[in-house]
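*** Query protein ***
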Amino acid sequence: MGSDNPDFVEEKIAEDVTVSSFCIEPHEVTNAQFAQFVAATGYITVAERPLSQEQFPDLADDERAPGSLVFQPPAEGIQQVAYLSWWQWTPGADWQHPFGPESGIQGKADHPVVQIAYEDAIAYADWADRQLPTEAQWEYAARGGNAGWTYTWGEQYAAEQANTWQGMFPFFNTKQDGYLSTAPAMSFPPNGYGLYDMTGNVWELTASWYTVLHDDMAHRQDPIGPPQTESYDPKKPMDGAMHVIKGGSYLCAKNYCSRYRPAARESQALDTGTTHIGFRLLKPATNPSI
């Protein structure tokens, strides 16, 4: 896992690790699947809850409305914007209204669910008797048996292989791959293991804590994360902790992010969802010979 010739420093260094056999879902959890969970349990996601007074003591009551982060491209004709200004806190944004209260998921039952915080993914996993993959498990699955490839399909970037951003981010997207936002699950070719969207579409949450480097993992069996967090409980998050997300998304472009590679990684706060982060789950294999 990782890379000795990384595009970004956090991908250092390439390490040999071992993972036990597991069965991973072929695509991200979809809106339809998450809706079944909510219907069965009555679960309310983090984005649907008012902001807590304990976490945000300086906010007035009318500023605690439920919401989440939404991608908002610059207005047409704008050629320069401040870094990360394309993310806006939007009251009323949640998994059923990914871009705000006027948006919806009608006709998108087979799209990956987004606006999911880590706590929400864990709740769904418990209900489904599954687990979030560790970073090592996820990267092993993403490589599809081709550990030396830069991308899940080979050495050259190809727009037709995944849902990514074509054009100059964040100003214009040519939609060469056919999509401006999320695509239905399994819209693009699978990798060598028959897994879909291990590149692009939405970033995927993992169970591993994030540190800038992931070295010191060489020759380890089923590494959960950095050595100092090896005994962590994923249901008891540490203060200020971030989780590793993998795979890139429809917002990853050559000029920005470009993390649509198995070795690439990013961090995500525990308490926030966005319009481009989802998840998939796995189960340990019951037959060790698999």
In short: Residues 187 and 196 are 8 Å apart (CA to CA). Residues 31-41 form the longest helix (11 residues). The chain has a mean pLDDT of 88.
